[in-house]
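Re: S-adenosylmethionine structure - here you go.
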Amino acid sequence: MAVPREQRNVFGEVAEAYERSRADYPAALLDLITGYATGTPAEVVEVGAGTGKGSALLRRLGVPLTCVEPDPAMAALLARRFTDDDLVSVVVDRFEDWRPPPGGVDLLASAQAWHWVDHTRRTGLAAEALTPDGVLAIFGHEYGFADAELRAAMDAVYQRHAPEIADLPGRPVHTRHPGAFDPQELRTAPGFTDVTHERVVTVVPYDTARYLTLLSTFSPHRMLPEQQRVRLHDALADLVDSHGGVVEHELTTGLWLARRRGPAVAGGS
Ligand SMILES: C[S@@+](CC[C@H](N)C(=O)[O-])C[C@H]1O[C@@H](n2cnc3c(N)ncnc32)[C@H](O)[C@@H]1O
């Protein structure tokens, strides 16, 4: 029997395009993470590493990095990126099925992927994977637009060709998915404390061709029937061309940090 195609599993269909077109993560994130963690962790695990865009940032810490990624096509590019790198290992698995090392790790990170992990279990699994005082770092981009006029014109194209995803541009990523990340999960979780939010804003230009490649990697676009997706993308390409052939994405990279509660101190107040 055919396995139903799930939105969380569509990235591998376009792994090369994903690697070419998705935005990298700003180096400033790493300073925010190490500042919060008060130092360099001994070991990092990354959840949903994809082709390794978040991993490339985390690798700069210079400590062992385990990348957990269930999609074989994404994992193949990830492994290729880190060929001969003894500090990086790739595990082809879902986070829900992966087993943390005994004692846990002191940094667990996830770039643009936490919303795909089972939302009923992820906070508990993260707590189990971390050492006491270990840090959970969840980050990802919101692809906003620097030009409000272009953004409004794009909205009109979505309304016309794909109203079911018409609210996509600029809408925060955590509100769009079935497993949408809600920071309340962490604030109310007994295993975590010190929940903090940071953001870094950058502007990244995309020419029409690269912009279309980017759109082809967004899972709501991939879930559209092909003919509808082609009509939408053709109309968006015409629009971008008529605006000088460049889309300036205003990327807001959000970072959520939380600390695993340490063990209770006997007799402490
Ligand atoms: C939008 S991509 C993000 C990839 C990469 N971290 C980045 O920032 O470019 C989401 C990734 O999460 C992976 N994923 C989906 N479900 C997952 C799960 N249950 N556990 C771990 N990763 C998962 C997908 O295969 C995909 O590679």
